[in-house]
Amino acid sequence: MKKANTLSAQRRNKTILSIVLAVICVIYVLPVLTVVINSFKLNTYVKTDTFALPTGEMYAGFDNFIKGMTFGNYPFWKSVTYSVVITLLSTALILIGTSMAAWYIARVDSLVCRGIYYLCVFSMVVPFQMVMYTLSKTADTLKLNTPWTIPVVYLGFGAGLAVFMFVGFVKSIPLEIEEAASIDGCGPVRTYFSVVLPMLKPTMISVGILEIMWIWNDYLLPYLVLDINKYRTIPIHIQYLKGSYGTVDLGATMALILLSIIPVIIFYLTCQKHIIKGVAAGAVKG
Fold first, then answer.
1. CA angle 230, 231, 234 (to 5 degrees)
2. Quick check: 117 and 110 in contact, CB under 8 A?
3. Tens of pLDDT along 37-57?
4. Among candidate residues 184, 238, 282, 191, the one with its CA nearest the CA of residue 35
5. 144 in Cβ contact with 231 (< 8 Å)
6. Over the Cα atoms of the chain, what is R_g?
7. The dihedral sign for the CA sequence 33, 238, 76, 220
8. Are 157 and 221 within 8 A, CB to CB?
């Protein structure tokens, strides 16, 4: 009798938990569904019937997408190109630079290395708004205000989380493997690329996914650092979908937002199984 009551209570708790998680899931998905629905509506109905399905006279077809990509005198394909270049270069620089630094920090147990590690961890709690004005001035002074140099700025902001995760994972790798490579004649560089880097794959994928999602959707940093008359990323391009007197075509805006989030969603769904694995592996030891 007691066992039956326990099983009944467990099933009830699971049911309640499932309902709560389902509600949370709906809350998170609702904004995305709203963007999808309104991207196929005429601009007038986006404002008046936001949550209605795009049927009948509300339906705009793909006119919003065409209008958004051809609006103004700045080609949308240039914004896509700059977003892709900045995202790929920044992510590659973060992955290579921070994984090397984390390997050194984890293996060289000195006061300086511990200080660098704690500074990287501390940087995760510093709000971007505290440094954005001085950062903008510094980037202009050092000529880091182009799509090919702004990855250096992203490296500074992305290093905290990446170093934290990589250090935790490196500490879980047996040191004997690297010692064996050293006995076989491998130097530090060859040991890193031939031995350490392949073993970092789970955390490398997780950090890469998180950094790509952040950099691709970032608006404020490129807006402050880049010359927006020459270089516009997709978020900046969307922000400039304004007509005369500041009027905004919400239909076209929703269409471009949908186009911008589709690559990230596809990429995330494809690689999501690696995120938990990599985060758990990188958080085993601090």
1. 140
2. no
3. 988 988 888 888 888 888 888
4. 238
5. no
6. 24
7. negative
8. yes
Say how far apart CA 18 and CA 27 lie, in whole Å: 14
- Please report, to the nearest 10 degrees, the dihedral formed by the alpha carbons of residues 6, 9, 10, 16 taken in order: 180
Q: Residue 127 has which token pair?
A: 């709000």
Phi first, then psi: what are they for 75, rounded to 5°?
-65, 140
Phi/psi of residue 92, each to 5°? -60, -40
Q: Where are the beta strands (DSSP E) in the chain?
A: none
pLDDT band at 228 (very low <50, low <70, confident <90, very high): confident
Amino acid at 248: V
DSSP result, 164-206: HHHHHHHTTS-HHHHHHHHHTT--HHHHIIIIIHHHTHHHHHH
pLDDT category of residue 99 using cuts at 50, 70 and 90: very high
Residue closest to 80 by CA, chosen among 242, 263, 229: 263
- For the chain, the first-to-last Cα distance in angstroms comes to 46
| Tokens of residue 159, six digits | 């290093």
